[in-house]
Automatic annotation (TrEMBL):
Residues 39-339 form the Beta-lactamase-related domain. It comes from Xanthocytophaga flava. Keywords: Hydrolase, Signal. The keyword Hydrolase applies. This is Serine hydrolase domain-containing protein. Residues 1-20 form the signal peptide. SUPFAM superfamilies: beta-lactamase/transpeptidase-like.
Length: 352
């Protein structure tokens, strides 16, 4: 009887592994087809299912070097940074440093002074779910001033002036995507932990998970991809500044799969924090939002996802906790349409 049970266990493991390989081949086929149609757009993809990792990549780091993109190539993950920040916020909640429903007033750094009618109004969860009603950075104007480094002119003074001059939360309680909300969350984390955002993310994520390709201030590495704007022109990586917690982390498919692995493991600190971020904090007829993450449901699945677009790259991360899979797509050109179409096709044809 014992031998039969052992044989059954082995067969189940082999079956699961073969099924995972089959999924990875299907995903690779779709990615390869997309690359053949768009040979100027390099791509790196990581997929995890039941703790098994799979990778595929096409294209080169840049047109001159002819060095192939791999699972370890560094991309701008842009607003996927917000998932990392919201997980750090959730960890702070678990650490009892803050509460999701705390008002932000007492947690803002020195220099911020909310108007009287705004006091005890905005919660930490409001910032994290994009419903604070606060004004945001005018990226269109900044891009006109400096198309390569539009956020260079955003400073602590810029932000404090914007917040201190805000006299009304016009759309408080309604969804409006906010960069400044996540910038403030980064500053709140810095205040409650007494360290910089770069130090916090290194201590709580990068070093424990050994994310060797996840970079903050210094990203001058040989395995860095070259970004391209929507027209195909070369685009610089955005430099680290005060808005870092909203979208300036750089990473790779391999590191993001490692992150997904611990997110899907409910016994880890990051996994426990991720479950908190998956709670619905905002809902309307068009969307459900957790802390920094979009929640999509159909009749069979609930998936959690976040996209990112820098000036020269596009990315998207997605996972299904119940079915224990996750995927990361990284493109070396700004193309939100391409990365969304790719994820939709992979989901509909393979993962659904």
């Amino acid at each position: 009887m014992k031998t039969s049970l052992q044989l059954l266990t082995v067969l189940l493991l082999v079956s699961t592994f073969s099924f995972g390989q089959d999924l990875s081949k299907q995903i690779d086929s779709l990615i390869k087809d997309n690359y053949q149609k768009n040979p100027d757009v390099g791509i790196s993809v990581g997929f995890i299912r039941n703790n098994e990792e799979y990778y595929t990549a096409y294209g080169n780091l840049n047109a001159e070097s002819q060095i192939a993109i791999t699972k370890n190539s560094v991309f701008e993950i842009a607003s996927i940074t917000k998932i990392l920040t919201s997980n750090l916020v959730a960890q702070a909640i678990i650490d009892k440093k803050i509460k999701a429903d705390d008002y932000i007033d007492d947690f803002l750094p020195k220099g911020y002074v909310l108007r009287k009618n705004l006091k005890n109004k905005i919660k930490i969860s409001d910032l994290a779910s994009h419903q604070s009603g606060l004004p945001d950075i005018d990226f269109g104007k900044l891009i006109e001033l400096n198309p390569q480094q539009p956020i260079n002119s955003v400073t602590k003074k810029t932000l404090t002036t914007m917040i201190n001059n805000c006299s009304e939360l016009i759309d408080y309680g309604s969804y409006r995507y906010s960069t400044i909300g996540y910038t403030l969350l980064g500053q709140i984390l810095e205040k409650v932990y007494g360290r910089s955002y770069a130090e916090i993310i290194r201590e709580k994520m990068i070093e424990p998970l050994q994310l060797t390709n996840t970079l903050t201030k210094d990203f001058n590495v040989k395995n860095r991809t070259v970004g391209h704007n929507a027209d195909g022109g070369i685009q610089e990586f955005l430099q680290w500044n005060i808005t870092a917690s909203a979208g300036l982390v750089k990473s790779s498919a391999s590191d993001m799969v490692t992150f997904l692995k611990v997110v899907l493991n409910e016994e880890t600190e990051i996994g426990k924090a991720a479950i908190l971020t998956e709670k619905v904090f905002y809902k309307d007829e068009n969307r459900e939002i957790g802390l920094g993450i979009n929640i999509m449901t159909d009749d069979k699945n609930t998936i959690y996802l976040k996209s990112g677009d820098s000036m020269g790259q596009s990315s998207i991360i997605c996972y299904n906790r119940a079915k224990n899979w996750g995927i990361i797509l990284l493109l070396n050109q700004r193309s939100s349409k391409m990365r969304q179409s790719l994820l939709n096709e992979i989901y509909e044809k393979v993962l659904k």
